[in-house]
Amino acid sequence: MAYLRRGHKKLGFAWNLEKQLESIASEVKRLEKGRDMLVSVLRRFKGEEIFDEEIKKAFNDIVESKLAYPSPPADLTGLKVASVDGGLISRSLRLIDVIAVRAVAVIFKYEVGGRVSAYYYPEEHPPPKITFNADPFSQMDFDVSAGLERLSYELEVAINVQKQYDIDLLLLDGSLLPQASDKPYTPGLEAKYLKVLGLFEKLYRSCVENGVSLAGVVKDTRSTRFVQLLSSVIPTLVEKNKAFREILSFDYRLFIRSLLDSELFFRLLDKGERSMILRYSDNPNVHPVLKDVSKDWRDRFYITYLKPAELDRPIRVEFLATGNPTGEVRKVASAIMALSMHHPEYALPSVQLEAHAQAKLAEKEMDFICDQLAHKIGIPPSFLKPRDKMLPI
User: Fold this and answer.
1) How far is CA 356 from CA 24, 87, 350, 360, in A?
2) At what angle do helices 190-210 and 139-164 cross, to 10 degrees?
3) In degrees, to the nearest 5, what angle opens at C-alpha 226 toward C-alphas 220 and 230?
4) 165-183 pLDDT per residue, tens
5) Out of 48, 91, 239, 282, which residue is the most buried by the measure of CB atoms under 10 Å away?
6) Which residues fall within 8 angstroms of residue 41, CB to CB, at 6 or more apart?
7) Looking at 1-10, 189-198, 340-349, which range is the least confident one?
8) DSSP letter string over 63-92?
9) Distance of CA 371 to the CA centre of its chain
10) Which domains does the chain have, with CATH numbers?
């Protein structure tokens, strides 16, 4: 009887699961249909100058007139491109917290005939930098502290590589600014955060002084910056352009709210295109991070999306422009496009992939660090292990 009851429970679970999945699938199909209708309208206008000067004045974060632009890949011959990435592994132990970070710059020099020379700074597979903390941080503060350590090391490498190599384009793995999640919750980490801000600004100055184009390549982003802007500007577009009123035949607001920027541009852009550029923020003085940056730099950051691969989502590119942003985006986007068109299903600059491989840290490296540390302290390795590493089974 117990066996039969277990069998009935399994059947009940399977039936319940089937109903839940059917419900989810039905909702996804409904959203997909609406998203397709929305993008179908936008695609018909993406090459037209729909953002006139009146709209740009009302929405001051809009810089260009069209939704999308061709971005043909640049000829890389003679170009020197550097990418900086960092690896982080941390462990909260019984006695202390240990953080290991590695940062490396990879430089690709493109020569005549397609030959590429690779250089590494400070060296190929550099040893990690190890720091510790003996203060009783909360897990949240510990994570913030570890992230700031990684950022500091990456930025130092990005600044110093320009002293060792003559480069044209410098790519960061990620944003050109700290993120809201990097901001400390407690005063004890304020100094670390301010140090990171100072290093970012030192990097900006270094790039401008050395004539280096600076961009941050963000692969996985959940940003809705463009989606929110489109949602706000569509009523004005409808008012100005009768042909655009087709979008009112369905509840476009519902479907546009369900999209991320990357998903919107995956549908809207063709391979080899980029989105319009936007300012990083329409109000830098109240932006949670930009307001911490000095006024010299707050309004010099821009965003675009590139689609180098047919079957992969576009990549978000943040770039620094002290002059005309449209001229800078053409230069930066065409270079990144050429660097990222190596695979139909995966779009990321080849130099950035190499930097990631160089910077990555593995758990076994932290195991070795902790074992060696225990030996030098003169205690059994188990004294440093967290409880979840000591389970008997």
Assistant:
1) 36, 8, 10, 6
2) 20
3) 150
4) 999 999 999 999 999 999 9
5) 91
6) 244, 246, 247, 252
7) 1-10
8) -SSSSEEE-PPP--TT-EEEEEEEEEEEEE
9) 34
10) 71-223+260-361 (3.30.2170)
pTM, to two decimals:
0.91
- Residues whose CB falls within 8 Å of the CB of residue 172, separated by 6 or more in sequence, listed in order: 83, 84, 154, 158, 214, 215, 216, 217
3 or 21, higher pLDDT:
21
Tens of pLDDT along 43-75?
A: 999 999 999 999 999 999 999 999 999 999 999
CA angle 47, 175, 215 (to 5 degrees): 60
Distance separating the N- and C-terminal Cα atoms of the chain: 32
**What tokens were used for 150?**
């990684």
Distances 275 to 71, 113, 240, 288, 302 between C-alpha atoms, Å: 9, 31, 22, 25, 12
How far apart CA 39 and CA 269 sit, in angstroms, is 10
Note whether 208 and 165 are within 8 A (CB). Answer: no
Reading the block at residue 189, the tokens are 């980490």
Average pLDDT over residues 75-82: 98
The upper half-sphere exposure of residue 292, i.e. CA atoms within 13 Å in the direction of its Cβ, equals: 18
Whether the Cβ atoms of residue 254 and residue 347 lie closer than 8 Å to each other: no
State the Cα–Cα distance between residues 320 and 170, nearest whole angstrom: 11
Give the pLDDT confidence score for residue 346 in this predicted structure: 92
Please state the separation of Cα 70 from the chain's center in Å. 22
pLDDT higher than 90, residue 4: no
Closest to 237 in 3D by CA, of 83, 90, 48: 48
Q: What backbone phi and psi angles, to 5 degrees, belong to 371?
A: -65, -45
Quick one: residue 211, left, alpha or beta (phi over 0 = left, psi -120 to 50 = alpha)? left
Q: Distance of CA 172 to CAs 122, 151, 175, 230, 316, Å?
A: 16, 11, 7, 28, 12
Which is it for the CA torsion 197, 199, 202, 204, positive or negative? negative
